[in-house]
Amino acid sequence: MTVFAPAQKLAAYAALSANEVRAVTALSEGRPQTYSVGADIVSEGQQLSTTFMILQGWAMRYKVLRDGRRQILSFLVAGDMCDPYCFLLHQADHSIAAVTDVVTTTVSRGAMEDIVLGNPGLAKAMWVDALVTASIQREWCVSIGQRSAFERLSHLFCEIYARLEVVGLAKGGRCAFPVNQYELADATGMTAVHVNRVLQDLRKRGLIELQRPDLFIPDLPRLQAAALFDPQYLHPKPRDPQSEGDHL
Q1: CA distance 5 to 55
Q2: How confident is the model at residue 239 (pLDDT cuts 50, 70, 90)?
Q3: Could you tell me if 94 and 69 are in contact, meaning their C-beta atoms sit under 8 angstroms apart?
Q4: What does the pLDDT average to over 82-105?
Q5: 8 Å CB contact between 59 and 187
Q6: Torsion of CA 221, 225, 228, 229, to 10 degrees
Q7: How many helices (H) and strands (E) in the chain?
Q8: In whole angstroms, what is the distance from residue 155 CA to residue 139 CA?
């Protein structure tokens, strides 16, 4: 069976039965929609009645101050859900925009409630997914508050690689990284000029090779050490070889 990215990601948080994998995979056949680069998928203040999953491409959560300054809060990649229970809120408190062309599938509140009530493994995985999203946000706060500029960018590269690896989109130190320097600046609390300097330093040290939209990390453990990166905040599911026959 072909496993679609959200199912693959959710299976990293909880053991899913074959029926649960089929249930979440079937959602991809619902209401696919394509967004062009820069288009808002969700706008701040928008009324929420559905959630969505990213099937292809990259997106970003962000907020803009009244004077136009922007803070990027996180990046979303294939397999990510836009807050599985976001429809419990009255309206969106931030915006989500496409970094690349993005394909999503929309899931109605009723469909999401049905799938959660009928599939306890999926319900657990979605709750863990929401908790991991909060964990990532805490780590970004630590980066902006305590990590040096060099550590911030190094840590972000390690995090994105780890997340892409879960859904089979990173291997051998290589993955996509279509984020430009202005977006990196708004995500890390730096100026684009400072980002450029740090990227040059990372290249000179042989820690990364970045040629948008591709990233190559020649020695991942070395970059992780430089970034003080501990992947435990991403909360990967412990492997259980005995259950792999019946679960993804």
Answers
A1: 7
A2: low
A3: no
A4: 85
A5: no
A6: 0
A7: 8, 11
A8: 9
Query: What is the C-alpha separation between 156 and 161, in angstroms, rounded?
Result: 8
The answer to whether residues 167 and 53 touch, using CB atoms and an 8 Å cutoff, is no
Q: What's the gap between Cα 206 and its chain centre?
A: 26
pLDDT band at 237 (very low <50, low <70, confident <90, very high): low
DSSP alpha helix (H) spans, 27-95: none
> Torsion angle of alpha carbons 179, 132, 3, 114, nearest 10°?
-120
Long-range Cβ pairs for the range 218-227 (8 Å, 24+): 218/173, 219/173, 220/158, 220/161, 220/173, 223/154, 223/157, 223/158, 224/158, 226/150, 226/151, 226/154, 227/151, 227/154, 227/155, 227/157, 227/158
Predicted confidence band at 173 (pLDDT cuts at 50, 70, 90)? Answer: very high
**Cis before residue 213, ω within 30 degrees of 0?**
yes
CA distance 119 to 123: 6
